[in-house]
Amino acid sequence: MIPAEQPAASRGRAATGYVLGTLAVSALVYALDQCSKMFVERSMQLGETVPVLGDWLQWHYILNPGAAFSMGEDHTWIFTAIMAVVSVGILAFLPKVRSRPWVVALGLVLGGALGNLTDRLLRWPGFPNGHVVDFIHVKHFAVFNLADCGVVVGIGLIAFLLLTGREADGTRSAGTGRGQEGGG
């Protein structure tokens, strides 16, 4: 075996590990989201509110045809298309990822996007206008779900990584004055 071949093989295994890690984070977010929605649908009536921490945190079961704060209720199909494009874009980008923080960030966004996309495709009133199950209500804020949490936290982490110069390939931007991130 030529010595130069070993690093290439090692890089291939590492790339597969990052892809699988992202898919594992995504699958966890997706499963938690879908299981929590099924639980809410089976244990609550539409419109029902259950206090969790007084009136500061409640479970409030609604079906949301729009986006955040129920915006765009008449254009549900647009959100379906956006979530599909985001999901495909992340999957296409995954082979370039060589950073654990990017694995987590992209996995959170992908799992959340797929969770809400599933609702848009399979829930009432049907493809591609299905309504998203929302149930987490924080006082003076919107009603949302775990998929929304994954997307928001993931995008926040991506913004942080970009602002601090951490590239998805494991390097740092030239402006940060640092070299390799080392996959962490």
Account of the protein in words:
With 184 residues, the chain is α+β, with helices and mostly antiparallel strands. It has one domain. 53% of the residues lie in helices and 12% in strands. The chain is built from four helices and four strands, in the order αββααββα. The chain has helices spanning 5-43, 76-93, 100-122, 146-163, and strands at residues 49-53, 57-64, 132-138, 143-144. It has a four-stranded antiparallel beta sheet with strand order 1-2-3-4. It is globular, with a radius of gyration of 19 Å. Mean pLDDT is 89; it is low at 1-6.
List the keywords.
EC 3.4.23.36, 184 residues, aspartyl protease, Peptidase_A8, disordered N terminus, alpha+beta, four-stranded antiparallel beta sheet
Quick take:
This protein is α+β, with helices and mostly antiparallel strands.
The helix/strand class is: alpha+beta
Strand order of the largest sheet: 1-2-3-4
Give the number of DSSP strands.
4
**Count of discrete domains:** 1
Element-level helix/strand string: HEEHHEEH
What oligomeric state do these chains adopt?
A: single chain
Question: Percent of residues in helical segments?
Answer: 40-55%
Number of H/I helices:
4
Mean residue pLDDT: 89
Poorly predicted runs of 5 or more residues: 1-6
Terminus-to-terminus distance: 30 Å
Radius of gyration: 19 Å
**What fraction of residues sit in β-strands?**
5-15%
- Can you summarize the main beta sheet? 4 strands, antiparallel
Query: Which outline best applies?
Result: globular
Membrane topology: Multi-pass membrane protein
Pfam families: Peptidase_A8
GO molecular function: aspartic-type endopeptidase activity
Catalytic activity: Release of signal peptides from bacterial membrane prolipoproteins. Hydrolyzes -Xaa-Yaa-Zaa-|-(S,diacylglyceryl)Cys-, in which Xaa is hydrophobic (preferably Leu), and Yaa (Ala or Ser) and Zaa (Gly or Ala) have small, neutral side chains
